[in-house]
Amino acid sequence: MDKLLEVKDLVVKFALRTGTLTALNGINFSLLPGERMGLVGESGAGKSVAGFSIINLISKPGFIAGGEVIFEGEDISKYNFEQMRSIRGNKISMIFQDPMMTLNPVLTIGTQMTETLLAHKQMSKEEATEIAIECLKKVYIPSPETRLKQYPHEFSGGMRQRIVIAISLLTTPKLIIADEPTTALDVTIQAEIMDLLLELCIKEKMGLILITHDLGVVSQTTQKIAVMYAGRIVEKGKTLDIITNPKHPYTQGLIKALPQTHKKGEKLYQIPGIMPNLNQIPSGCPFHPRCTFKKDICSQIEPSLKSVDKGEVACHLYA
Ligand code: SF4
């Protein structure tokens, strides 16, 4: 089967007055049509930059400094603004953490939905309204005809995120990039929204890149995982393999830190130390100051991703 997306040696830099920082250091991954992948790591790992750079949404002073983003056989990283408009919000939709970042507070839901459609497709306003109603039904918003006339503030946080998901469905995209889609929501609503997203991806045969710090959410939603650290992918593999048998010490730490792996009353585990700043990436393996397995070589030579069992790991323990 042809790949839907292939990210090859992607490098993203930020040109600051103090110097140029590398936010993505040559990452590689791919997705088949309808496949779901989790991009996982702590804040600052580069996972959101990776997601945004697929649709060239890196704001200045950031820029793509190398590599390719092949979508449906074409390198879209070289597209100009107009060409990118035919992809972004059309063939590839993005769902952000906070629904209010997507929704315009002074426009009705109906106006926002129909305008999105009319910007990408040739159709009448009536046809656009029909599609908007259908998409609201898909995300289980009751009385969609009435709801179209309402403003974002008239909905709860969970309902707003449902509307954002409905907007992302309007153009029947091939791929959805969801950046921490439930982080801004109440815990009780989070599972509901993830279940809905999963259901729609399967039903509509859409690919999904789920960007999250939560390996628990990824384990229930995706088929494969790329674990990111300091702008690099340090482990890749099938979700079940990584969750049940993580190889990289960082992945092991992320799993050990999951609340559901702790007994009642047990102190929550934390990976020692913090993610390095982009201007202070340690030499060798960037994880070495926090790693309890480090060897002499770890601070000297950066390990590259190598095949280990069924996945790939960047760690000297598997040399
Ligand atoms: Fe730890 Fe060394 Fe592996 Fe890095 S390369 S994760 S420091 S053992």
Topology, element by element:
Elements: E1 5-16, E2 19-31, E3 36-40, H1 47-54, E4 62-71, E5 74-75, H2 81-85, E6 92-95, H3 99-102, H4 109-120, H5 125-138, H6 144-147, H7 157-169, E7 175-179, H8 187-203, E8 207-212, H9 215-221, E9 224-229, E10 232-238, H10 239-244, H11 249-256, E11 306-308, E12 311-313
Parallel strand pairs: 3-8, 3-9, 6-7, 7-8
Antiparallel strand pairs: 1-2, 1-4, 4-5, 9-10, 10-12, 11-12
Helix pairs in contact: 4-5, 5-7, 7-8
This protein binds iron/sulfur cluster.
Task: Please explain how this structure is put together.
By secondary structure, the chain is of the alpha/beta class. The chain has one domain: P-loop containing nucleotide triphosphate hydrolases (Rossmann fold). The chain has eleven helices and twelve strands. The structure holds iron/sulfur cluster. Iron/sulfur cluster (SF4) binds at residues 248-249, 285, 287-288, 291, 293-295, 298, 303, 315-317. Iron/sulfur cluster is lined by residues 248-249, 285, 287-288, 291, 293-295, 298, 303, 315-317.
